[in-house]
Amino acid sequence: MQELVIATKNEGKAKEFKDFFARYGIKALSLLELNDEVPDIEENGTTFEENAALKAEQISAIQSTPVLADDSGLIIDSLNGRPGIYSARYAGVQSNDQANIEKVLDELTGVPIEKRDARFICVLAIAIPNKPTIFKTGFCEGKIAFTAEGKNGFGYDPIFIPSGYTKTMAQLSSGEKNKISHRYHAIQQLEEWIKNI
Ligand SMILES: O=P(O)(O)OP(=O)(O)OP(=O)(O)OC[C@H]1O[C@@H](n2cnc3c(O)ncnc32)[C@H](O)[C@@H]1O
Ligand SMILES: [Mg+2]
Question: Residue 60 is inside which H or E element, if any?
């Protein structure tokens, strides 16, 4: 079976990529599973594209193989787009999903449902040695809930209600999330590339 390295240390993302790529008979390997130690990549870009490219290109250079990276996040309209590229470290560098969620809910205290519009974004970068990096972007529209609900998924899933649903992303099964998520919409655009790996 073909293998593809995914430049992520996020277990939630890694699991989703495994499910997606298994459909094409490809084994997705996250950085948590590589035998060699890989350094932490500093995500010091100013856009999702820059950060995705930093992760994909640096790991591809080390491994001398094609590498896919995902830079993603939550964009909340009434917070001027925050947490945005800072989604993973919104409540501080040492923060965790719980602290990030609490910070968002705090900042939205008193904000009515019609002003709680948000979207997840996923920017994928595929770095291939000696070729230009490829980028694909996917979105998932929704609203920020008033309380955290559900245990599935990761990150901000417990406070994100996708458009057309009354449940949070963390109350959906992984199969349901993977049909509507920002990550799914980005990967879908890679189908042709995946078939030619
Ligand atoms: O950089 P890697 O190692 O891939 O892992 P990370 O968690 O740091 O990933 P990002 O830098 O791309 O930050 C994205 C953050 O956005 C949030 N996020 C992204 N996709 C999400 C999803 O599908 N559901 C919920 N939250 C998500 C979550 O808090 C992530 O930590
Ligand atoms: Mg990161």
Answer: helix 48-63
117 backbone dihedrals φ, ψ, rounded to 5°:
-65, 140
72 within ligand 1 shell (Cβ under 6 A): yes
- Of 72, 76, 168, 169, best ligand 1 pocket probe by most atoms within 8 Å of the beta carbon: 72
Please provide the average confidence, as pLDDT, over all residues in the chain.
96
Return the residue whose CA atom lies nearest to atom 28 of ligand 1. 155
- Cβ(126)–Cβ(190) below 8 Å: yes
Q: What is the pTM of this model?
A: 0.97
This model of the complex carries an ipTM of 0.99
Read off the pLDDT of each residue in 63-68 and give the average, rounded to a whole number: 96
Pocket lining: 171 vs ligand 1, CB cutoff 6 Å? no
- Show the domain range for 60: 2-195
Q: Decide: helix, strand or coil at residue 126.
A: strand
Q: How many domains does the chain divide into?
A: 1
Known catalytic membership, residue 106: no
Q: Which of 19, 40, 70, 71 is catalytic?
A: 71
Looking up residue 168, the CATH number of its domain turns out to be 3.90.950.10
Task: Provide the 3-class DSSP secondary structure of residue 123.
Answer: strand
Tens-digit pLDDT profile for residues 16-42: 999 999 999 999 999 999 987 889 999
Q: Which residues are annotated as a binding site for substrate?
A: 8-13, 72, 154-157, 177, 182-183
